[in-house]
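Page 42, continued from yesterday. The earlier attempt failed because a stray header line got pasted into the input along with the sequence. Redoing it now with the clean sequence only.
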Amino acid sequence: MTLDETTYKVNGCAMRVHNTLGNGFQEVIYQRCMAIELGNAGLLFSREIDQVIYYNNIEVGTRRADFVIENQIIVELKALISLEDVHLAQAKNYTVAYDFPVGLLINFGSISLQIKKVFNPKFKDKIK
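This time it went through. Structure tokens are written below.
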């Protein structure tokens, strides 16, 4: 499956969750529902895998993205009224830190589902 096909499937899972639940729940509820939908879609995924963060080759801490899909896409979920630039920066930072080509920032908290796709500049010419 190509990266675009996988991204399309993940977006479809998010749409099903949002269409069913709407907005107004805590992020953890959407995360659990997404896990069900991703499994139903036949996608391989991991939840909240620790990623070591380095500064000048020194370990300075860990972060957890909500999902790693098919070992190629980072997914960060939010349940906010609206996304801000800081949330987009977080999704991009996770995508780069995990060294994956693409990340998705999905917000279930607004009336309309919001999905933002972010790219790792390292993979600029390799994304298909």
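Notes: The domain at 3-119 is CATH 3.90.320.10 (Lambda Exonuclease; Chain A).
Reminder to self: strip header lines before submitting.
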